[in-house]
From TrEMBL:
Enzyme Commission number(s) from the entry: 2.7.2.3
Enzymatic class: transferase
Gene behind this protein: pgk
Binding site for substrate: D19, F20, N21, R35, H58, L59, G60, R61, R117, R150
Species annotation: Arundinibacter roseus
Sample GO molecular function, one term: phosphoglycerate kinase activity
Entry binding sites for ATP: K201, G292, E323, G353, G354, D355, S356
GO BP: any one term: gluconeogenesis
Phylogenetic classification of the source organism: Bacteria, Pseudomonadati, Bacteroidota, Cytophagia, Cytophagales
Pfam family, one: PGK
Annotated protein name in UniProt: Phosphoglycerate kinase
Length: 396
């Protein structure tokens, strides 16, 4: 596999697949630019080595072709500021305008292509579409780790049209950090799993049971565990058909000698809103009409004690509905203790993408943990042991 450090970009147009699928607010402003900032080393390396960058990405999941909400034009100004140079924009990712802009691109210049998913061919992995895209550049740089689990035209299929395929720094760092966790973790190794759905995280939880010393379960998914054990969870999040599975996980943890830790208390609300009435109750004792939206203070203390003694920490999924400030207290507290373990116990801490990364970054802790992944689903699939199509395409 060619790397950014060994490839000579001088006079070359690099077609770089990035994952600029960033959250935008109603004014189309970026609310978390982690994924963009993560690509600075890759793009800077290409530009300073005498190359030009043609950036291609998706944004959201547009269903019906071009849509204002999902246009990458909203990223042009922020990108210019981040990269400190003008960014040209092709309002269609293929076709005449994109071809002309790409052809006239000079070394040191950046061209951004419009959302790839405005063509349904992208997600279908259409070969002709991939070939059209490939004609825009001389070398393909794959740096969209967050989308590397998708076998789409620009992430997996396009590679066949290039002799020169280069793995970007984001991809490399993500893979190295995930490997470090899976293969060389210092002990005690603690995984903190949270977020909404057990079904999404089932496989990774099972895989982690082979590796970790402690498995902490918080957030929305913990209520299914509680219910399955006979607890009362009111109208808290429940995946009814996963109850049996949670009991199996508890048994499996026991048989493997893994310390599986569940919340002991929970902050409940009478409504799914920031301003709902709140109280703290024991886990499994949630009255009817109430729902658990955060872990309670005793749980924070219990989880913190384990995390602060850990040498390796993987955190994926918030401890509560952190989007509501009144229910972000548990998630913030865990973020703080992960930082403390990193700084004071010299722990290696990896925050696994998506909402957990936003929670850590928004709390201002992004620079104080060992690594914040840009991948949500991609990281989980990688850690489950799957071969990601976007990684495989670089080797083919
Ligand atoms: N107790 C809860 N009840 C309802 N939703 C929850 C609860 N705890 C966490 N969540 C929600 O889970 C979502 C994040 O879940 P998930 O997508 O699995 O995490 P990540 O993106 O970090 O992998 C957040 O929107 C959060 O509000
Ligand atoms: O945001 C992404 O994934 P994530 O929500 O798992 O972090 C990627 O950009 C992939 O997007 P997709 O899940 O619409 O294919």
């Amino acid at each position: 596999m060619k790397t950014l450090d060994t490839y000579d970009f001088s006079g070359k147009k690099a077609l770089v697949r990035v994952d600029f699928n960033v959250p935008l607010n109603e004014k189309f402003e970026i609310t978390d630019d982690t994924r963009i900032k993560a690509t600075i080393p890759t793009i800077t390396k290409i530009l300073t080595s005498g190359g030009a960058c043609i950036l291609m990405s998706h944004l959201g999941r547009p269903k019906d072709g071009p849509t204002e909400k999902y246009s990458l034009k909203h990223l042009v100004n922020p990108l210019s500021l981040i990269f400190g140079r003008p960014v040209k924009f092709a309002s269609d990712c293929i076709g005449e305008q994109a071809t002309e802009l790409a052809a006239s691109l000079q070394p040191g210049e950046i061209l951004l292509l419009e959302n790839l998913r405005f063509y349904k061919e992208e997600e279908k992995g259409n070969v002709e579409f991939a070939e059209k895209l490939s004609k825009l550049g001389d070398v393909w740089v794959m740096d969209a780790f967050g989308t590397a689990h998708r076998a789409h035209a620009s992430t997996a299929i396009i590679g066949q049209f290039f002799t020169d395929k280069v793995c970007g720094y984001v991809m490399q760092a993500e893979i190295d950090n995930a490997q470090r966790l899976l293969e060389h973790a210092e002990r005690p190794f603690t995984a903190i799993m949270g977020g909404a759905k057990i079904s999404d995280k089932m496989l990774i939880i099972e895989r982690l049971l082979d590796t970790v010393d402690n498995l902490i379960i918080g957030g929305g998914m913990s209520y299914t565990f509680s219910k399955a054990q006979g607890g009362q969870i009111g109208k808290s999040l429940l995946e009814a058909d996963k109850q049996e599975l949670t009991l199996e996980l508890i048994e499996k943890a026991k048989s493997k000698g893994v310390n599986l830790i569940l919340p002991v208390d929970t902050v409940i609300a009478d409504d799914f809103s920031n301003d709902a009435a709140r109280q703290t109750v024991k886990a499994g004792q949630i009255p009817d009409g109430w729902e658990g939206l955060d872990i309670g203070p005793e749980t924070v203390a219990l989880f913190s004690d384990i995390v602060s003694k850990s040498k390796t920490i993987l955190w994926n999924g918030p401890m509560g509905v952190f989007e509501f400030p009144n229910f972000a207290i548990g998630t913030d507290a865990i973020a703080k203790v992960v930082v403390k373990a990193t700084e004071e116990n010299d722990a290696f801490s990896l925050i696994g993408g998506g909402d957990s990364a936003s929670a850590v970054n928004n709390a201002g802790y992004g620079d104080r943990v060992s690594y914040v992944s840009t991948g949500g689903g991609a990281l989980l699939e990688y850690m489950e042991g799957k071969i990601l199509p976007g990684v495989a395409a670089l080797d083919a």
